[in-house]
Specification:
The model is unreliable at 82-90 (pLDDT under 50). The protein is built from 10 helices and no strands. The protein is mostly helical. The two termini are 36 Å apart. The chain has helices at 2-16, 23-38, 51-56, 63-71, 77-81, 87-90, 93-108, 120-135, 148-165, 172-179. It folds into 2 domains: 2-81, no CATH class; 89-179.
């Protein structure tokens, strides 16, 4: 039953792809679809006497799930070499607050400069602020989960978003979203 609804949701996400206005959102959506397709799932039920019969009464067959848990599963080669954590899985609630803190810092300082996007030194300062924030021991990404290249990629993604969404303060992009 879960698999049916998961496939329905994947179909919905795929149908929404052409209507997405933002290239970044489309990339994130495609990654989500790939993640959903690659993710193996099993229902984990604590063993108890008579559990198979109990679940059969509810028209549920837990034997394949029990076998998967006991015997393990065959992983794709790409998953055998290192864990494949997705960035969504890595972000804890504290990290979301850190992201807000970064945006507030940028808004308070660098993004207040008139025509900040046109000034190379200000653009570079915004990039540096983002990179420094991500590398910081206090505010940065967990080093055990991200490679140096992934941190750099994330910094570039954040900069592209800030560049697109905050040409001025307040953001014209978010003003439309709030007004709608």
């Amino acid at each position: 039953m879960i698999e049916f609804y998961r496939q329905v949701r994947i179909g919905e996400l795929e149908r929404e792809l052409p209507s997405l206005a933002d290239e970044q959102e489309e990339i994130q959506r495609q990654r989500k679809i790939v993640w959903m397709r690659e993710t193996l799932m099993a229902v984990v039920v604590s063993e108890e006497q008579g559990e198979v019969e109990k679940f059969r009464k509810w028209d549920l067959d837990i034997l394949p799930h029990r076998r998967l848990i006991k015997e393990g599963m065959e992983l794709p080669d790409s998953m055998k070499t290192k864990p494949r954590f997705r960035k969504m899985q890595r972000m804890a609630l504290d990290d979301a607050f850190k992201a807000k803190e970064l945006l507030e810092t940028l808004k308070a300082e660098k993004l207040r400069i008139d025509h900040w996007q046109e000034k190379e030194s200000t653009r570079d300062a915004v990039c540096a602020e983002i990179r420094n924030f991500l590398w910081s021991d206090d505010t940065g990404l967990p080093v055990e989960c991200y490679t140096e290249a992934e941190v750099q990629e994330r910094a570039e993604e954040i900069f592209r978003h800030v560049y697109r969404a905050y040409p001025t303060l307040p953001s014209p992009f978010y003003e439309k979203t709030v007004a709608a």
